[in-house]
Design goal:
With 285 residues, this protein is α/β, with parallel strands linked by helices. The protein has helices spanning 27-40, 62-75, 93-102, 136-148, 160-172, 198-203, 221-231, 254-267, 275-283, and strands at residues 4-5, 7-10, 44-47, 80-83, 106-110, 114-116, 130-132, 152-157, 180-185, 210-215, 234-237, 271-272.
Length: 285
């Protein structure tokens, strides 16, 4: 099904202020935003759980997660559910407990460590420099939970060394097929969002693995996604990654972003996959 493309909606992320940006965080709003994306062509929804007071900080509450999933499934019964697991430190009990309780179809797993940095125009740090630590021992714990609960791993790669590590994980037996590779581009201290880099990254992936681009930013997002579609990769878009359409307009939610992504995919000769087709592409089911 090389003419089919899996479109993931990156539903909300964390930390961005819902009073300033259109990020859903209540289960009801998450479900409606997912339906908007589903109707526009998304077959996968990648989600974070946020605190229900300010709507910004990450939480790992299985009851909240179950309510969000139930409401999403009422509106989109066949959509593929993908939960984040990203957390700093070696205590993964929160995300692991969420995966064990909800058993989503997929889970995103940061597959290596990164100095997470950003500098303001003044030269000051945008936030105190921090290490997004994901050593092999932590990755192994995540994969054990995923495999025990029938969850498909999505390996997020923030730099070229992490991309290359996937082949080592596979050779070692730590990572088993099928799995998905995500090329995360646009984080200031990670891989840049550049179309000329994309063929090199894909060439370093394990042979035959399904892959997608995750592109963080504004104007640079859309050319990389178009190149991804032309190269046979899958696509992800949503307000976790960008708030802007190719023409520079700011969106009011996920639906318009997915609609634009589906339009772009069709322009290069690919049709958005249905959830059933996406399951075949990603899971071999």
């Amino acid at each position: 099904m090389s003419d089919k493309v899996v479109i993931t909606c990156a539903l909300n992320g964390v930390l961005t202020d819902p009073n300033r940006h259109p990020v859903p965080y209540t289960p009801e709003d998450m479900a409606q935003s997912t339906k908007d994306a589903y109707d526009a062509g998304a077959s996968v929804v990648h989600m974070h759980l946020r605190d229900q007071q300010m709507g910004r900080m990450p939480v790992w509450d299985p009851e909240l997660g179950q309510k969000a999933v139930d409401l999403i499934k009422e509106k989109c019964p066949d959509i593929i559910i993908n939960f984040t697991t990203g957390i700093i430190g070696d205590d993964i009990s929160g995300p692991a407990g969420l995966l064990e309780a909800l058993k989503p179809d997929m889970a995103a797993m940061n597959s290596g460590s990164l100095n997470y940095l950003k500098v303001r125009s003044s030269g000051d740090w945008a936030w105190p420099p921090l290490l997004f630590d994901n050593p092999v021992e932590k990755i192994q714990k995540y994969l054990q939970v995923m495999y025990e609960n029938g969850i498909h791993p999505e390996c997020e790669c923030f730099d070229t060394g992490i991309v290359r590590s996937l082949s080592l994980f596979k050779k070692n037996g730590l990572l088993k097929e099928p799995f998905t590779a995500s090329l995360v581009q646009g984080v200031e201290s990670g891989m840049p969002a550049r179309t000329d880099l994309l063929p090199i990254l894909v060439d370093e992936l394990p042979e035959g693995v399904s892959w997608q681009s995750i592109v963080i930013g504004r104007d640079e997002v859309w050319p990389v996604h178009r190149k991804t579609a032309e190269m046979g990769g899958n696509l992800r878009v949503g307000v976790e990654d960008t708030f802007y359409l190719p023409n520079g307009d700011k969106v009011d939610g996920n639906g318009p972003l997915v609609e634009e992504m589906a339009k772009m995919a069709r322009e290069v000769g690919r049709e958005p996959a249905t959830p059933a087709e996406a399951r075949q592409i990603l899971f071999g089911q």
